[in-house]
């Protein structure tokens, strides 16, 4: 029987009030989670204070402790 290497993912369990950093893609940058439902996540940019609601799209990669948030590019 063959053995297969498989990458496993699970949706990230967002919590209101979390500070997150998305490393790549069109939503990259720092965000604050301001709302969560089964299907949607609502995020606010800590710099512009603009708010967006998107289908849940993030998957957990790692937790980090950082000195500065929001981060400068």
Molecular structure report:
It is a single chain. The chain has strands at residues 19-22, 29-36, 40-44, 51-55. It is an all-beta fold and 73 residues long. It has a four-stranded antiparallel beta sheet with strand order 1-2-3-4, with no helix packed on it. The protein contains no helices and four strands.
Brief summary:
The protein is mostly beta strands and 73 residues long.
Question: Which structural traits does this protein have?
Answer:
single chain, 73 residues, mainly beta, 4-stranded antiparallel β-sheet, 30% strand
Order of helices and strands: EEEE
Low-pLDDT residue intervals, each spanning 5 or more residues: none
| Number of helices, where a helix is a run of at least 4 consecutive DSSP H or I residues | 0
The largest sheet is: 4 strands, antiparallel
- The average pLDDT value, as a whole number, equals 86
Q: What is the topology?
A:
Elements: E1 19-22, E2 29-36, E3 40-44, E4 51-55
Antiparallel strand pairs: 1-2, 2-3, 3-4
């Amino acid at each position: 029987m063959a053995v297969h290497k498989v990458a496993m993912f699970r949706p990230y369990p967002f919590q209101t009030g979390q500070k997150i950093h998305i490393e790549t893609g069109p939503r990259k940058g720092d965000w604050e989670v301001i709302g969560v439902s089964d299907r949607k996540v609502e995020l606010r940019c800590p710099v512009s204070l603009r708010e967006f609601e998107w289908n849940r799209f993030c998957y957990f990669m790692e937790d980090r402790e950082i000195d500065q948030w929001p981060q400068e590019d």
